[in-house]
Amino acid sequence: MTMNWPDHPHPLTLDEYLALDEEIQRETELVDGIRVQREQRGRPHQKTAFRLANALETAVRKYRQSHTTGSPPCYEVNTEVNVLLWDVPPTIRKPDVIVHRCRDQFETLGAGDAVIVAEVISRWSESRDRIHKMGEYAKAGIPHYLIVQFDEMGATSVEHYAVLAAQPVYSKIGITHRDRDLWALNVTVPFDVQIGWQELEVGPPA
């Protein structure tokens, strides 16, 4: 089915983009005011992102349960939601998965709300995820960035990048491989996260 999108030859303001039809917004991002189409996302891609979101949600839940006193930061996990990286010119990306500070459900998330963003690499998105989005997420100050590669059975590797200094660039923390490492992700910052490869499987049960 071909979608008839309105033609916008000029850069859009943030309000103009947010006023677009929800279907158009779902399949586009805004880069320096220019609406760009999102890459194709097949079922294995979507399932891998879904499994990662579920695993991170479990980690968030354990984090909440481990704090029986005080008021720890409130985190949520979402997929493919608008994240405003900066206002001028307006840039909105939709990470495959995001861990962010709790906000009202109708409030647009900003880069300052995000603590982890993740992109699942596909053949259509590799340069965008590894070059453009990596640079934008770092420039926006998002602390942690995950790049996940997959096959028909699920995630095959997880790359972890983080902003470690005042400069808005990512340093590579490490990379895990399904055929080599016990954990797909095992970190203590921003909170304890331990994700096994079986949690990221998308193929039929053996």
Q: Could you please describe the fold and organization of this structure?
A:
The longest helix has 24 residues, at 43-66. The chain is of the alpha+beta class and 206 residues long. It contains four helices and 13 strands. The protein has helices at 14-18, 22-26, 43-66, 126-139; strands spanning 28-31, 34-37, 75-78, 83-86, 91-93, 97-101, 109-110, 114-120, 144-151, 154-162, 171-177, 183-187, 193-196. Helices cover 23% and strands 32% of the residues. The chain has one domain (40-200): Alpha-Beta Complex (tt1808, chain A), CATH 3.90.1570.10. The strands form four sheets. Strands 3-6-8-9-10-11 form a six-stranded mixed β-sheet. A three-stranded mixed β-sheet has the order 5-4-7, covered by helices on one side. Strands 1-2 form a two-stranded antiparallel sheet. The termini are far apart. The model is unreliable at 1-5 (pLDDT under 50).
Map the helices and strands.
Layout lengths: L13 H5 L3 H5 L1 E4 L2 E4 L5 H24 L8 E4 L4 E4 L4 E3 L3 E5 L7 E2 L3 E7 L5 H14 L4 E8 L2 E9 L8 E7 L5 E5 L5 E4 L10
Protein traits:
disordered N terminus; alpha+beta; tt1808, chain A; 206 residues; 13 strands
In brief:
With 206 residues, the chain is of the alpha+beta class.
